[in-house]
């Protein structure tokens, strides 16, 4: 029996190994919200009041729809229904579609998606911003 790469089930690794949950106030979803690094296990274990979702590159599939769906699936397994706020750094087609298609489930899970109309101007450059109070 060959044990080369791809022939063993142990070759598959998860981004976050199973274990007890960790509670945080604010989490920046790593690597532009790429599904290679963030899955359901991440959201089952890394529990936060606020998640910042970056990514504005549709060609690179950022943010990943799979990551956004993983948030819903992971949060559904929490014991409590604490409020979670999702903070996108960019307005993207993926985020808008996901928001509209899963809005009812977001409400059931007590997830709010923050939209910001505030703008910060620094050194002749402007960008969207939001205020977070912990």
From TrEMBL:
Record GO terms (molecular function): actin binding; microtubule binding
Assigned GO CC terms: cytosol; dendrite; microtubule; microtubule associated complex; neuronal cell body; synapse
GO BP: axonogenesis; dendrite development; microtubule cytoskeleton organization; regulation of microtubule depolymerization
Coiled coil, from the record: none
PANTHER family reported in the protein's UniProt record: MICROTUBULE-ASSOCIATED PROTEIN, MICROTUBULE-ASSOCIATED PROTEIN 1B
Protein name per Swiss-Prot or TrEMBL: MAP1B protein
Source organism (scientific name): Vireo altiloquus
Encoding gene, per UniProt annotation: Map1b_2
